[in-house]
Amino acid sequence: MSFIRFVVFVALILTVAAGQLASHGSAQVDLNSDTRRSLEADILEYERLLANREQELEDIKAALGDTASELASRIAERDAVSAELAERRREREQLNAQIAELEARLAATETR
Predict the structure, then answer these.
(1) Residue 106's CB: how many other CB atoms inside 10 A?
(2) Helix axes 34-111, 2-24, angle to 10 degrees
(3) Rounded Cα–Cα distance for residues 110 and 35 (Å)
(4) By C-alpha distance, which of 17, 11, 60, 61 is closest to 39?
């Protein structure tokens, strides 16, 4: 923000100096002029608006941070559920294999 203030200050000085040169033909600056007060008021208003904008940006960053945290949490939850489903599939395959083995034994026993 200091660079912006510097640019605005330089613009203020150049504007006042140019106005004084045009109206008086000299390089003297009236430090109490209406133009200067108006420019200072504009600078203050600009700084207020800039501070408001910076606060809005901080609020947006905070909201995005919250959203990113929530998203990371949901992804972790989804990964945990996926891992659990994969484990249940392996268990089902093992049970199906045991059932098939028992049915084969039963068939062999019945044949005997």
Answers:
(1) 10
(2) 150
(3) 110
(4) 11
